Amino acid sequence: MCDFIDRHLDESLTLEQLSSVAASSKYHFHRIFKSFMGISTIQYVLFARLKRASFRLAFEPEYSVTDIALEAHFESLEAFSRAFSRHFEQTPSQFRKQPNWSYWRSKYEFNSPKSGEEIMDVKVVDFCETEVALIEHKGSPKLVYNTAAKFIDWRKSTGFSPIKTSDTFGVAYSDPSDTPEDEYRFDICGSHNGDVPENVFGVKKGIIPSGRCAVAVHKGNHDLIGDTVSYLYREWLPKSGESLRDFPCFFQYVNLVHEVDECDLLTNIYLPIR
């Protein structure tokens, strides 16, 4: 996949295109890539374009900095200069005059996440189709709790999907580290049989489909759930002989942040498989 990206830097390289080339569901591809490379696809594409740009600056003086910026898919010279300086700690002009190759090289020593240090207990289960009420969070991942608060308000004001007696899920359509904020989506769900009346909160009816799933339990901070997800993709999946279904991984919150101490949080991570 890295070779494909490197050979097609002039293309838009969308998640849909890359996942299609990899013959993988777009819901899973970005997580698989990051679990092995240690960086997201968005970061890799950016780094690859900046690498080519740095070679242009150092070895091809006939290219203007503006031309190099546009070739690297930046809308302006200013945006390119900011990104280049942030990445290499030299402006494009400084790099052209005297490139710091030692520092440059350090930026391309990708290290995949550590593996083999922990063995998680992963089980394969048959997940039953579950009717849910859901609210879609779209936008910055940092604001998910705002959407969660709306969903809690809906539960309390309607009495539907009561927190104490219903299951609470999160469906991770996007990886927050690999998705532009305006494309990020995360559904917050509560088990609920029956219709969901129209409401001001934006809550609607949905379904989490049935099927086989690999399940691992994440203990503690929700911000570190990505580590458990990465383990499933990087360690468990290649050794399991299983293949993925076209539905994103999802989480079942056994308890919630306002109920227990953070160290006691339990979250079941479901990875849909065929």
Secondary structure elements and pairings:
Layout: H1 2-7, H2 15-21, H3 26-37, H4 41-59, H5 65-71, H6 77-88, H7 92-97, H8 101-106, E1 123-127, E2 130-138, H9 144-158, E3 168-172, E4 185-191, E5 204-208, E6 211-219, H10 225-240, E7 250-253, E8 266-272
Antiparallel strand pairs: 1-6, 2-4, 2-5, 3-4, 3-7, 6-8, 7-8
> Helix and strand string, N-terminal first?
HHHHHHHHEEHEEEEHEE
Low-confidence parts: none
Taken from the alpha-carbon principal axes, the silhouette is elongated
Radius of gyration from the alpha-carbon trace, in angstroms: 22 Å
Brief sketch in words of this structure:
By secondary structure, the protein is of the alpha+beta class.
Labels describing this entry:
274 residues; alpha+beta; Arc Repressor Mutant, subunit A; Multidrug-efflux Transporter 1 Regulator Bmrr, Chain A; 2 domains; eight-stranded antiparallel sheet; elongated
Give a verbal description of the structure:
With 274 residues, the chain is of the alpha+beta class. It folds into 2 domains: 2-106, Orthogonal Bundle (Arc Repressor Mutant, subunit A); 123-272, Multidrug-efflux Transporter 1 Regulator Bmrr, Chain A (Alpha-Beta Barrel), CATH 3.20.80.10. It has 10 helices and 8 strands. It has helices at residues 2-7, 15-21, 26-37, 41-59, 65-71, 77-88, 92-97, 101-106, 144-158, 225-240; strands at 123-127, 130-138, 168-172, 185-191, 204-208, 211-219, 250-253, 266-272. The chain has an 8-stranded antiparallel beta sheet with strand order 1-6-8-7-3-4-2-5, covered by helices on one side. Helix 4 runs antiparallel to helix 5. The longest helix is centred in the N-terminal third of the chain and has 19 residues, at 41-59. It is elongated and about 70 Å long. The chain starts with a helix and ends with a strand. The model has no long low-confidence stretch (mean pLDDT 90).
